[in-house]
Amino acid sequence: MRVLVVDDDFMVSRVHRAMVEQTPGFTVVGEARTGAEALTAVRELRPELVLLDIYLPDMSGLDVLRELRGSSDDAKTGVDVLVVTAARDVETVRGAQLSGVAHYIIKPFEGRTLRERLLTYAHRRRELARLAASGEAGQAEVDRVFGATPESEAPRPAPTTQQGRVALPKGLTGQTAALVRRTLENATGDLSSTECAERSGLSRVSARRYLEHFVTTGTAEVSLRYGTTGRPERRFRAAGTKPPRSGPT
Asked: What angle do CA 160, 164, 168 make, to 5 degrees?
């Protein structure tokens, strides 16, 4: 499937491009840095899917969505959109949902997250194509297209202790968790897993396990720091603390 990547940050765009092209069945046909470039690229390149950032220099990604959905040009209105952005306010998420996006991914994220969303999108496209050939659909087929989850397969809440706290995964201890939490809370900014390990006296692997657990339970937040080469570095901070400001991406 043909994909257009829209992001004003050149490095982020290239990272997303690599993630897409590593996913079977997808190829990137172009990149755009602004909303105007995105609209032109959709018209000229005719992608099937757009990876769209919300923070663009000339207009909001939501404005781009409205242009795509409001145009009478079939080459535009036929394109699907997957939002990939740092915007996490509910108003933006709701606006994207109302515009019919395929999904909404909040930066930073693991590469597997985008891969899973792309493969889910491809599956739904195949289901829809199969239904188009048959001419009509039953409820089960429609549910598959829209991604409805049967109650028996719905995610279950994380296990808790008798005191109502989230239980630690196997291999993690309360004492060490408290140590890592204090290290994170006492930091003046964010920390990498290596920095957290050095300050707490743990191995980097152990510190990383606790930090990732805190992210899962909402005790900590994570952001990505992009360097000139290699994978972006994951930076952790206590939940609710202000992240370092480097401009919207």
From this structure: 40
